[in-house]
Design brief:
- Strands 7-6-5-4-2-3-1-8 form an 8-stranded mixed sheet.
- Helix 5 (115-119) links the parallel strand 4 and strand 5.
- The model has no long low-confidence stretch (mean pLDDT 91).
- The chain is 27% helix and 28% strand.
- The chain has helices spanning 4-13, 23-35, 66-69, 86-96, 115-119, 164-167, and strands at 19-22, 45-52, 58-65, 99-106, 129-133, 147-153, 156-159, 168-171.
- The protein has one domain: 3-Layer(aba) Sandwich (Cytidine Deaminase, domain 2), CATH 3.40.140.
- The chain is an alpha/beta fold and 174 residues long.
- The radius of gyration is 16 Å and the shape is globular.
Protein backbone atom coordinates (compact mmCIF):
# COMPACT_ATOMS: atom_id res chain seq x y z
CA UNK A 1 0.00 0.00 0.00
CA UNK A 2 1.33 3.43 -0.93
CA UNK A 3 2.03 5.94 1.83
CA UNK A 4 0.06 9.22 1.89
CA UNK A 5 3.23 11.06 0.81
CA UNK A 6 3.75 8.71 -2.14
CA UNK A 7 0.12 9.19 -3.21
CA UNK A 8 0.41 12.99 -2.90
CA UNK A 9 3.61 13.06 -4.96
CA UNK A 10 1.93 10.85 -7.55
CA UNK A 11 -0.96 13.28 -7.83
CA UNK A 12 1.40 16.25 -8.16
CA UNK A 13 4.09 14.82 -10.43
CA UNK A 14 2.58 11.70 -11.98
CA UNK A 15 3.51 8.14 -11.17
CA UNK A 16 7.13 7.25 -10.43
CA UNK A 17 9.06 5.46 -13.18
CA UNK A 18 8.37 1.72 -13.27
CA UNK A 19 12.04 0.95 -14.00
CA UNK A 20 15.19 2.78 -12.96
CA UNK A 21 18.75 2.08 -14.05
CA UNK A 22 22.08 3.81 -13.63
CA UNK A 23 23.04 5.33 -16.96
CA UNK A 24 26.44 3.56 -16.88
CA UNK A 25 24.82 0.11 -16.42
CA UNK A 26 22.40 0.82 -19.28
CA UNK A 27 25.14 2.09 -21.61
CA UNK A 28 27.44 -0.87 -20.91
CA UNK A 29 24.56 -3.32 -21.34
CA UNK A 30 23.40 -1.82 -24.62
CA UNK A 31 26.96 -1.81 -26.01
CA UNK A 32 27.26 -5.49 -25.13
CA UNK A 33 23.93 -6.26 -26.82
CA UNK A 34 25.14 -4.53 -29.99
CA UNK A 35 28.44 -6.44 -29.86
CA UNK A 36 26.62 -9.77 -29.53
CA UNK A 37 24.67 -9.14 -32.76
CA UNK A 38 27.93 -9.94 -34.60
CA UNK A 39 27.77 -6.91 -36.80
CA UNK A 40 23.99 -6.98 -37.17
CA UNK A 41 23.78 -10.62 -38.25
CA UNK A 42 21.63 -11.87 -35.35
CA UNK A 43 19.42 -10.71 -32.54
CA UNK A 44 20.71 -10.58 -28.97
CA UNK A 45 19.08 -10.03 -25.63
CA UNK A 46 19.37 -10.06 -21.86
CA UNK A 47 17.45 -10.62 -18.69
CA UNK A 48 17.51 -7.47 -16.59
CA UNK A 49 18.07 -8.33 -12.95
CA UNK A 50 17.49 -6.11 -9.97
CA UNK A 51 15.37 -5.34 -6.96
CA UNK A 52 11.94 -4.00 -6.05
CA UNK A 53 11.72 -0.40 -4.80
CA UNK A 54 9.46 0.90 -1.99
CA UNK A 55 7.38 2.92 -4.49
CA UNK A 56 6.54 -0.24 -6.46
CA UNK A 57 9.14 0.38 -9.15
CA UNK A 58 12.11 -1.82 -9.93
CA UNK A 59 15.83 -1.02 -10.13
CA UNK A 60 17.89 -2.66 -12.91
CA UNK A 61 21.28 -3.65 -11.51
CA UNK A 62 22.62 -6.17 -14.00
CA UNK A 63 22.23 -7.44 -17.58
CA UNK A 64 22.51 -11.24 -17.90
CA UNK A 65 22.79 -12.09 -21.59
CA UNK A 66 20.66 -14.84 -23.07
CA UNK A 67 23.63 -16.58 -24.66
CA UNK A 68 25.48 -16.66 -21.32
CA UNK A 69 22.54 -18.55 -19.81
CA UNK A 70 21.91 -20.67 -22.91
CA UNK A 71 24.91 -20.88 -25.28
CA UNK A 72 22.53 -21.99 -28.07
CA UNK A 73 20.06 -19.08 -27.57
CA UNK A 74 21.22 -17.15 -30.65
CA UNK A 75 21.99 -20.04 -33.03
CA UNK A 76 18.99 -19.44 -35.29
CA UNK A 77 19.53 -15.69 -35.62
CA UNK A 78 16.47 -15.07 -33.42
CA UNK A 79 16.39 -15.44 -29.65
CA UNK A 80 15.30 -18.92 -28.55
CA UNK A 81 15.92 -19.86 -24.93
CA UNK A 82 15.59 -23.51 -23.96
CA UNK A 83 13.74 -24.19 -20.72
CA UNK A 84 16.59 -26.46 -19.64
CA UNK A 85 18.86 -23.38 -19.42
CA UNK A 86 16.67 -21.46 -16.97
CA UNK A 87 17.99 -23.15 -13.79
CA UNK A 88 21.29 -21.31 -14.48
CA UNK A 89 19.40 -18.00 -14.45
CA UNK A 90 17.58 -18.84 -11.20
CA UNK A 91 20.84 -19.88 -9.54
CA UNK A 92 22.48 -16.61 -10.63
CA UNK A 93 19.52 -14.66 -9.21
CA UNK A 94 19.76 -16.54 -5.89
CA UNK A 95 23.50 -15.91 -5.63
CA UNK A 96 23.09 -12.17 -6.26
CA UNK A 97 19.87 -11.70 -4.30
CA UNK A 98 18.17 -10.27 -7.40
CA UNK A 99 15.08 -11.08 -9.40
CA UNK A 100 14.25 -10.70 -13.07
CA UNK A 101 12.74 -7.21 -13.33
CA UNK A 102 12.49 -7.00 -17.15
CA UNK A 103 14.10 -8.23 -20.34
CA UNK A 104 15.53 -6.54 -23.40
CA UNK A 105 16.35 -7.70 -26.91
CA UNK A 106 17.28 -6.12 -30.21
CA UNK A 107 15.56 -6.07 -33.58
CA UNK A 108 17.10 -5.38 -37.00
CA UNK A 109 14.71 -2.51 -37.78
CA UNK A 110 12.00 -0.98 -35.65
CA UNK A 111 11.39 -1.44 -31.94
CA UNK A 112 7.88 -2.83 -32.45
CA UNK A 113 6.94 -6.25 -31.17
CA UNK A 114 6.95 -9.02 -33.70
CA UNK A 115 4.19 -11.64 -33.74
CA UNK A 116 6.64 -14.10 -32.15
CA UNK A 117 7.45 -11.58 -29.38
CA UNK A 118 3.74 -11.25 -28.60
CA UNK A 119 3.09 -14.99 -28.74
CA UNK A 120 6.12 -16.07 -26.70
CA UNK A 121 7.02 -13.69 -23.86
CA UNK A 122 10.43 -14.34 -22.31
CA UNK A 123 8.77 -14.27 -18.87
CA UNK A 124 5.11 -15.18 -19.36
CA UNK A 125 3.80 -13.63 -16.17
CA UNK A 126 1.50 -10.63 -15.92
CA UNK A 127 3.38 -7.42 -15.18
CA UNK A 128 6.63 -8.48 -16.87
CA UNK A 129 8.26 -5.68 -18.90
CA UNK A 130 9.89 -6.47 -22.25
CA UNK A 131 11.95 -3.83 -24.06
CA UNK A 132 13.05 -3.84 -27.69
CA UNK A 133 15.99 -1.84 -29.04
CA UNK A 134 15.90 -0.93 -32.74
CA UNK A 135 18.62 -1.32 -35.39
CA UNK A 136 20.53 -4.03 -33.49
CA UNK A 137 21.15 -1.48 -30.67
CA UNK A 138 23.41 0.71 -32.81
CA UNK A 139 23.63 4.30 -31.63
CA UNK A 140 23.05 3.30 -27.98
CA UNK A 141 19.26 3.73 -27.91
CA UNK A 142 17.67 4.96 -24.68
CA UNK A 143 14.11 5.15 -23.37
CA UNK A 144 12.15 7.45 -25.64
CA UNK A 145 13.54 5.63 -28.70
CA UNK A 146 12.84 2.02 -27.68
CA UNK A 147 9.84 -0.27 -27.44
CA UNK A 148 8.50 -0.85 -23.92
CA UNK A 149 5.81 -3.51 -23.51
CA UNK A 150 4.09 -4.97 -20.46
CA UNK A 151 2.71 -8.49 -20.58
CA UNK A 152 -0.84 -8.48 -19.20
CA UNK A 153 -1.44 -12.23 -19.47
CA UNK A 154 -3.67 -14.17 -21.83
CA UNK A 155 -1.69 -13.04 -24.88
CA UNK A 156 -2.41 -9.35 -24.16
CA UNK A 157 0.19 -6.58 -24.01
CA UNK A 158 0.24 -2.89 -23.05
CA UNK A 159 2.49 -0.63 -25.10
CA UNK A 160 4.31 1.92 -22.87
CA UNK A 161 6.77 3.04 -25.55
CA UNK A 162 5.34 6.57 -25.75
CA UNK A 163 5.95 7.03 -21.99
CA UNK A 164 9.68 6.49 -22.65
CA UNK A 165 11.72 8.29 -20.00
CA UNK A 166 8.73 8.57 -17.67
CA UNK A 167 8.49 4.77 -17.63
CA UNK A 168 12.22 3.89 -17.65
CA UNK A 169 14.46 6.45 -15.94
CA UNK A 170 18.20 6.44 -16.49
CA UNK A 171 19.95 7.95 -13.49
CA UNK A 172 23.40 9.48 -13.16
CA UNK A 173 25.62 8.66 -10.21
CA UNK A 174 27.39 5.77 -8.60
Amino acid sequence: MASPLTRLLGWLFGPPPRLRCRRSIWADGVRQLERRTRGGRQESGAYLLGTELPDGGRRILEFVYYDDIDPRALETGEVTIRQTALPRLWEHCRMRGYGVVADVHVHPGSCRQSPSDMASPVMPRAGHIAMILPDFATGAPEPGAIGIYEFLGGGRWADHSAAGRRFVKLEDGA
